[in-house]
Write a structure and sequence with these properties.
22 strands, binds adenosine-5'-diphosphate, 37% helix, binds magnesium ion, alpha/beta, 7-stranded parallel sheet
Length: 691
C-alpha cells in the first residue's frame, strides 16, 4: 500500500558498512532510507582535481597540495598544537592540528608523503593549513575526476564515510529497478529546470570538473534550483492540503462581545502595544467566522504573545465555549497556567490544568472539569491530546512555542477538537517565537493567515551582549561572582554538540563541577535534558525562587522560562548554535528591571563566518534583523538536520534566494492537484516527512 516504492523503502542498513552504530548516527541527521541519504546535499565543494604547487598557494585559497613531511612536533604556543611542515619542489607550508590523537601523531612522521586539502591561512610560520584533510600519497594515486562534495556532518561521521555511502546510493540511483519515483512531471517544471529529479541529484552529488563551482556554492545551479523548486512546490501543496481539509468543516462563530476581554484589559497593569492590539483584532475576526480559523502568530521573545492568547481565549469563553492552550514542555505549560490563573480567576473563571504529572484522583477531577465545561480555559502539555480527554465545547486550540516542531504538522493537528458530530472543528492559533522576516512570511505562507507582533513592550532594557574568547574565562568567572554578590542570578548554558545527549549532559555536569570548585561560595544547580521532567521542573522552580544563584544548563532552558532576577547569561561555544536559537536563549535574561548581559564565550579559533555571526548577535537585539542575517549567512542545505529556525526547515530552498521560484510554484501546484492528484501526497511526504 505504500505509494513510495524504491529507494524510499530501502533502509540505509542495506548499504555496505552500515551497522547499528552508523545507522543511529545517520538517523541523527534525519537519514533513514537510501532516499533520505540522497537528499542529504553537499554544503560546498572542493576541487581535488588538481594539485597546486606549494610555492603558488595564496591566502584564502582552498587548495590541494602534495609533498613530503619534513618535520612534526608539538608546539606549545598559546594553545597546544601539533605542527608539521610539508615540502614539495616549489616550497614549504605548515600544517597545524589543535586536536590530534596518538594515532595521528604516529602517522604524521617526517618522511611521510601526504596529499592535503584545506584553506591557506597566514600563520606564525608563514602560510599554514589548520586541520587539513589529508591522506597517504605514497602510492601517487590519480587525482579526483569530479568535484568533491562536503556534506553537513555530525560527530562520529566523517566526510570520507559519508562519501563512500553516497557513492553506493548513487549507484543504486542509476541502476535499473531501484528507482527514485518522479512525482513531478518535467513538463510542470519551469523552463531551464525541466529535467528529472534523478538527474538533479546525480549532478549535485558529483559535479563534473567544469561545473560552475561558484553557482553551486550559492545554491543557484540549475540542478539545485530544480530541487528547490520541487521542495517549494511540496510545501505549497502541503499548505493547500491543510486549508482544503479545514474548509471541509465548519466552526462555531465566536464573535467579540467585549465583556470578559474588556474586564481583563481593565485589570492588566499595562496597556497593550499597538502590535498586540492589531494581532488581537486579526484573531478576533477569525473567531467570528463560521469556518475554522487557522492562524500563525509570530512574535519575538518577550513580545507578549501570552496575553494575546489569553484575550483570544476570553472571546471564546464569552461565547460559552472552551479554549485550550498547549505548550511543549511541562515547565512552560506551568508558567502559562500561573499567568492564566492570575488573569482569569479574578474574572470568576476556572482554569483547568493537565500535564503528564497530573495523575490519579487529581487527573480524574481535572478530566471531569474539562468534560462538563466548568473549566472554561484549560492549560497543559501533550497530555491534553490523550484519548480520554473530552472537552465540553471546545472553540479554540492554541499551541505555543512551536519552533521545535514543524509548523505544518501543528497546523494539521486538530483531530482532538473535532466535535462529537465530527462536522465542526475548533479554531486554531499557533504561536511561535521564531522570527522570520515579514515579507518572507507573507510569501512563504501565502496560503495561511499570519499575524506578526513586531514591537516589544516599552521600557525594556535591551540585553547588552559581549563576545569573549574562552581564553578570558577567568574574567567571566569573576563577573559571575560580582553579579551574584549584588543579588542577581546567572545562567551558564553549555551548548556542546556532542555525539550523544548523554555526552552533552556529562559535559554540563563537568562544567557545573568546575564552576563549583571555582565559585565555592555560590549555590549552584544543574539542569539538563536527561533529567526527569519532574526533576527539571523542581530545579527550575528552585532557581526561580532564588534558592540557587547560578544555574548550569544545557539548552533545555531555551523555551519560555521567566526568571526576572536572572540578569546575566553566559553561553559557552555559541558558535555552534544557530542565531535564532541564540536569540531565544538570550531572551531568558532582560526580563526584569535590571540591566542585563549576555556573554558569548566562544572557542578559538573562530572562522570568519563564525565571527560575523557572533557580531550580529552583539550588535542587534532585534529577532527579525537577526533572522534576516542568519538567512544571509547560512548556505543552502545547511538547514538540514539542524532545524535552527524551525519555521523554515527547508532542505534545499532558501526563501530569500529562491523567492522567485516560490512564485513559480503557483500554477504547477494547481495542475498537479488536478492532473496528477495521486502524486500529491507522496511528493509532500518526500519533502516534509510523515504527516
Ligand atoms: P512571549 O511573546 O515571549 O511569550 P510573554 O507573553 O511571556 O512573551 O511576555 C513577556 C513579558 O512581558 C510578560 O511578563 C508579560 O506580562 C509582559 N507584557 C506583555 N505585554 C506587555 C505590554 N503591552 N506592556 C508591558 N508588559 C507586557
Ligand atoms: Mg511565550
Amino acid at each position: 500500500m505504500n505509494p513510495a516504492p524504491g529507494l524510499a523503502d530501502q533502509s540505509v542498513t542495506t548499504l555496505k558498512g552500515v551497522g547499528p552504530g552508523l545507522r543511529d548516527r545517520l538517523a541523527r541527521l534525519g537519514i533513514h532510507s537510501v532516499q533520505d541519504l540522497l537528499f542529504h546535499l553537499p554544503l560546498r565543494y572542493q576541487d581535488r582535481t588538481r594539485i597546486t604547487p606549494i610555492g603558488q598557494v595564496r591566502q584564502g585559497q582552498d587548495v590541494m597540495v602534495e609533498g613530503e613531511l619534513v618535520s612534526a612536533a608539538v608546539d606549545l604556543g598559546r594553545r597546544r598544537s601539533l605542527f608539521c611542515r610539508l615540502r614539495d619542489e616549489s616550497g614549504m607550508i605548515g600544517l597545524r592540528f589543535y586536536y590530534f590523537s596518538a594515532a595521528q601523531r604516529k602517522r604524521l612522521r617526517p618522511g611521510a608523503r601526504l596529499r592535503c586539502h584545506g584553506e591557506i591561512r597566514p600563520g606564525r610560520s608563514g602560510y599554514e593549513i589548520y586541520h587539513p584533510e589529508y591522506q597517504d600519497a605514497s602510492d601517487r594515486q590519480p587525482v579526483e575526476d569530479r568535484l568533491t562534495p562536503i556534506y553537513p556532518a555530525t560527530e562520529g561521521l566523517q566526510q570520507t564515510r559519508l562519501r563512500t555511502l553516497m557513492k553506493q546510493a548513487l549507484e543504486r540511483l542509476s541502476r535499473q529497478g531501484d528507482t527514485l519515483q518522479e512525482w513531478l512531471p518535467e513538463a510542470l517544471c519551469p523552463p531551464g529546470l525541466n529535467f528529472s529529479l534523478t538527474r538533479a541529484l546525480q549532478y549535485v552529488h558529483q559535479p563534473p570538473v567544469d561545473a560552475r563551482i561558484e553557482l553551486l556554492e550559492q545554491g543557484r545551479h540549475p540542478s539545485q534550483q530544480r530541487l528547490a523548486f520541487e521542495e517549494l512546490l511540496a510545501h505549497r501543496l502541503s499548505m493547500r492540503r491543510i486549508r482544503q481539509q479545514a474548509r471541509q468543516f465548519s466552526a462555531v462563530a465566536l464573535p467579540s462581545r467585549n465583556r470578559l476581554t474588556r474586564q481583563l484589559l481593565d485589570h492588566l497593569p499595562f496597556p497593550l502595544t499597538a502590535a498586540q492590539q492589531r494581532v488581537l483584532h486579526e484573531i478576533s475576526r477569525d473567531l467570528a467566522e463560521p469556518v475554522p480559523g487557522l492562524r500563525l502568530l509570530q512574535g519575538d521573545v518577550g513580545s507578549g504573545k501570552t496575553v494575546v492568547a489569553a484575550l483570544a481565549a476570553l472571546q471564546v469563553v464569552e461565547n460559552d465555549h472552551q479554549a485550550v492552550i498547549m505548550a511543549p514542555t511541562e515547565l512552560l505549560a506551568e508558567q502559562h497556567f500561573i499567568s492564566f490563573s492570575e488573569w482569569l480567576t479574578p474574572l470568576g473563571l476556572q482554569v483547568g490544568w493537565l500535564s503528564g504529572r497530573v495523575k490519579g484522583r487529581r487527573r480524574d477531577q481535572q478530566l471531569s472539569l474539562i468534560a462538563n465545561g466548568s473549566a472554561q480555559v484549560v492549560v497543559g502539555t501533550h497530555a491534553l491530546f490523550q484519548d480520554d480527554v473530552q472537552f465540553h465545547r471546545l472553540g479554540l486550540v492554541i499551541i505555543d512555542e512551536q519552533h521545535r516542531f514543524g509548523v505544518h504538522q501543528r497546523l494539521a493537528l486538530r483531530e482532538k477538537g473535532a466535535t462529537t458530530d465530527n462536522r465542526r472543528l475548533p479554531h486554531q492559533l499557533v504561536m511561535t517565537a521564531t522570527p522570520i522576516p515579514r515579507t518572507l512570511a507573507m510569501s512563504a505562507y501565502a496560503d495561511l493567515e499570519v499575524s506578526v507582533i513586531d514591537e516589544l513592550p516599552p521600557g525594556r532594557t535591551p540585553v547588552n551582549t559581549v563576545v569573549i574568547s574562552n581564553e578570558r574565562r577567568e574574567q567571566v568567572i569573576d563577573r559571575i561572582r560580582d553579579t551574584c554578590r549584588r543579588g542577581s542570578q546567572v545562567y551558564w548554558v553549555c551548548t556542546l554538540i556532542e555525539d550523544s545527549e548523554a555526552v552533552q549532559c556529562q559535559a554540563a555536569e563537568a562544567t557545573a563541577e568546575q564552576l563549583s570548585a571555582l565559585l565555592p561560595e555560590l549555590r549552584i544547580a544543574l539542569v539538563h535534558g536527561r533529567m526527569k521532567p519532574a526533576d527539571k521542573t523542581r530545579v527550575m522552580e528552585a532557581f526561580k525562587s532564588g534558592e540557587f544563584q547560578l544555574l548550569v544548563a544545557t539548552t533545555v532552558i531555551e523555551v519560555g522560562v521567566d526568571v526576572p532576577n536572572a540578569s546575566v547569561m553566559i553561553i559557552e561555544n555559541p558558535e555552534r548554535l544557530g542565531l535564532a536559537q541564540l536569540h531565544q536563549l538570550r531572551g531568558r535574561v532582560g526580563r526584569g528591571s535590571r540591566a542585563s548581559h549576555c556573554i558569548l564565550l566562544y572557542q578559538t579559533p573562530l572562522s570568519e563566518v563564525g565571527r560575523e555571526r557572533l557580531m550580529i548577535m552583539r550588535d542587534s537585539n532585534d529577532g527579525f534583523h537577526i533572522a534576516e542575517e542568519d538567512l544571509r549567512l547560512r548556505g543552502p542545505g545547511q538547514v538540514l538536520g539542524t532545524r535552527q529556525t524551525g519555521l523554515m526547515d527547508f532542505r534545499v530552498a532558501d526563501l530569500e534566494r529562491d523567492g522567485e521560484l516560490l512564485a513559480l510554484t503557483l500554477t504547477p501546484a494547481d495542475r498537479l492537484l488536478h492532473e496528477h492528484p495521486r502524486h500529491v501526497d507522496p511528493l509532500i511526504r518526500r519533502w516534509l516527512g510523515e504527516r
